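Re: the 516-residue chain
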Amino acid sequence: MNFSKKDLAQIKKKGLTAEKVEEQINIFKRGNVVVNVREAAMVKNGILAIPEEEKQELVSHYESRKEKLDILKFVPASGAATRMFKAFYNFLKNYNPEEESIEEYVDKKNHHKLEIFFSRMKDLPFYEEVIQHLKQNHADFENLSEDKQQLLFVKAMLEEDGLNLGNQPKGLVPFHKYKDHLATAFEEHLVEAVDYASSNGKVRVHFTVAEEHREKFEAEAHKIKPRLEKETGATFEISYSYQDPKTDTIAVTKENEPFRDENGDIFFRPGGHGALLENLNNQEAELIFIKNIDNVVVPKNRKILADNKKVLAGKLLELQEKTFVYLEQLKADVEEGKLQEMTEFLQKELNSGWSIEFEELSKEEKISVLKQKFNRPIRVCGMVKNEGEPGGGPFWVTHKNGAISLQIVESSQIDHDNYQQSKIAQEATHFNPVDVVCSFKDHKGNNFDLHKYVDEETSFIADKTKDGKELKALELPGLWNGAMADWISIFVEVPIETFNPVKTVADLLKPTHQVK
């Protein structure tokens, strides 16, 4: 690829190299690589269903250790709320009050969530704020027809001279209504962290945010932090980071040539949530909880959420402690019986196999393999029963070298044109709610370099547009997908009550988001 001097200067400014950009272009030429799913992970076959008695032991184990641990909660929060309100932007664009009623429009579109929204608007956490705004700006508001009131409500909810919610970061949209205040997703993440991620009265929470939204988050933190610290007795340490420009990826035309904007500059796009591996890699903590910004529960479910977070953390500590002991033992001469014990632990407890005939290796070679397998970052992921929510799922995957491992696989990574692969995908019983507890400290207390554990082939090519022109975009291996492909991975079944996402504004009307 012949880049001009102007191109090379732009690439350098991004923190990239011409070689790295060429690698990305070659991925476009190669196309998407589908994942070879062997079978869906299920309870007793890749997913642990932990008995209640053992759960209590794991909770106790975590609680006995946590005051000595440096704990962090990591929340990807850079997304804007625009997608939450997509149906309403379309509504404002397409609805003509002169030609039809809102009811007729909803029926014509057969849009169930719009129907729910208009029938239950009063249950929205920000309903009264919008109504107050409308009454101040429309003296005759209460005398208007129901259709006109609803149309004005949508406009006030979204437009710049109203609440402008669609242009807010998702984390700062009010999710829950309490007697004396509205709580954003940002606030709810801080509050729930007190129950499971505090250590010595300190709660550390790190948010990855869009740079242009940081001041808004800081202003919200300044407003709510004194109240939360008074209510909880905890001290909050809130930090932020942005997606690194060097994780942006080049966009290309259908012919795999660099896509250029109206100024002739190469067009780069954010590389998806896999780019946040860089942000995660920069954190300092012994134990890290990862959870998406739009997934928060109401108070009645906080205990079940916290208890299950502690179960995941207790399981991680239990397994990590054992791997650390084995790594120390592997420094000395190890008996064959002990090697066999380690091998069984690796296969049965850590879900780790190999692409080699392990039993045919010499003792020294076995020790080398075991050291490599034990000495990796570790994650324990909650999995919920599949109830039709979108998201990736847990599968056993066969790799090119013949190795088999547990992975979180997105539907888009599976070849649905292949009958066998599609059948396996349909057999999945659980999906990934992004409920992760992880540690990337080695047995000596040093951080692993997370870039070394990525499956680069799981990057994903998607069709997009810019300024009305078609382009191909490249998303990096997903943070909890290919970016963690070579981690020690444990999957644990958790109750559906711990998963309460908000993908559209209508989700805020669900009973699980009503504070009673």
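The chain has two domains: 33-80+170-513, 82-167.
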